[in-house]
Amino acid sequence: MQAIVDWLVSQVWSLGLVIFALGAGLYFTLLTRFVQIRYIKEMIKLLFEGKSSESGVSSFQAFCMALAGRVGIGNIAGVATAIAFGGPGAVFWMWVMAILGGASAFIESTLAQVYKRKIGNEYRGGTPYFIEKGLNIKWFAILVAIVVTVSYGMLMPGIQSNTIAVSFENTTGINTSMTGIVLVALLAVIIFGGVKRIASVADKVVPFMAVGYVIMTIIILGANFSEIPAMFALIFSSAFGANEIFGGIVGAAIAWGVKRAVFSNVAGVGEGTYSSAAAEVSHPAKQGLVQAFSVYIDTIVVCTATALMILITGMYSVTPEGGSPIVDTMSGVEAGPLYTQAAVETVLPGAGPLFVSIALFFFAFTTLMAYYYISETTLLFLDKKMKFKWMKTVWKVLFLVMVYIGSVESASLLWAFGDLGIGSMAWLNLVAILLLTKPALKVLKDYDSQKKAGIDPVFDPVKLGIKGADFWEEKLRKEKENEKKSVG
């Protein structure tokens, strides 16, 4: 079974997906006239501008919820792997893909806002929602919803909890079952509190963990200050084949850098669409811009922090796939968290294992919160009218059970199944947003024109000829009715 699933994963997460994601990012970048670059100041402004409402979370909370899913254990382990197989130049291509991915993130998150719904007293939306309303292909939407619900709700949680439990057992000797119980208890308090509590925890924990990780990076860089120019020179020269040591693996640098960025920030994969739809905004493009910025935080900030710690301390090895080692400093050590651990040890002896364990805990725990929210949102799509009101409670319990099982059991097969589900989701979501490019561009053009006119953009789908945006049509209708009543 493991061999079959591993083969399927290798097919789904092939070079084809990397090229597809890179091509889509470039395509959206050109069509939007580099929206992810020309609106950077606007992104930061919008991040703190929006306020939450009775039904929606604030733009910042939605941003943190998306970042909770984007920033995970891959930001530590995955970056080390990219360097180990692609050399220091992989870091540069990781940056390039992050910039292009910002355009993909803008498109998918804008679409999530356009086609969102109000279910109960909460805003919900995401890939299956905009496939059903935007493309009017119900079977496609149901397929995506099933893949996402099973992947994020049953297969992926165990991977994150296993990483936390094993890390703490190796570092502190704490039994994995005890860690599992604590994780379940903490998560239960959060997810049984609903989306508002998830958002409230995310907007506090996510900034804290990101800032803490960056502070450690600054400490490492400060201790090796004189080496900073040489380190950046190494990254750039290796990226273009100019470095005498890594010049022969420039192809691997590009492939692994792009792959790492795609796998880390999941721009265009659909993961950020669910939290985007939950935000209270006056125009869909606003949240699209905010979510594009989350890609930068994930890759340009957090992934880069890992890369810089590893590179400036020299705690890495580089062995091209199928080749001999070019650099063998970490001989016999598997590429992953141990590279970061060794980097911290060079400056703060004895602190490496504990730092990595704490970082993994926060990264994985916030990812678990994001996973639950995503799976619940797609579950609600499958049961739109809440015919079975008990279903959400049962799903919460099942999710917590999977978290505990993952803590005490090997996660290898679950990891493979999860990768298969997420990889499949990437292909499906990229196809969907490419087919919905036209309405997304209409929204951006409308936002541009209103900004140029000096007004705060307000979305009117009827005026733009966008069909299926039921929430926004109903919202405008109610606002007009209220205006008439106030005048009368």
UniProtKB/TrEMBL annotation:
Cross-referenced Gene3D superfamilies: Amino acid/polyamine transporter I
Gene Ontology CC terms: plasma membrane
Keywords associated with the record: Cell membrane, Membrane, Symport, Transmembrane, Transmembrane helix, Transport
Top-level lineage group: Bacteria
Lipid bilayer topology: Multi-pass membrane protein
InterPro entries hit by this protein: Na/Ala_symport (IPR001463)
Keyword Membrane: yes
TM spans (from-to): 12-35, 56-86, 92-115, 135-154, 174-193, 205-225, 231-256, 295-318, 354-374, 394-416, 422-441
PROSITE patterns, alphabetized: NA_ALANINE_SYMP
Localization per Swiss-Prot or TrEMBL: Cell membrane
Molecular function (Gene Ontology), one example: amino acid:sodium symporter activity
Keyword Transmembrane helix assigned: yes
UniProt record similarity statement: Belongs to the alanine or glycine:cation symporter (AGCS) (TC 2.A.25) family.
UniProt-recorded name of the protein: Alanine:cation symporter family protein
Species in which this protein is naturally found: Cytobacillus horneckiae
Lineage: Bacteria, Bacillati, Bacillota, Bacilli, Bacillales
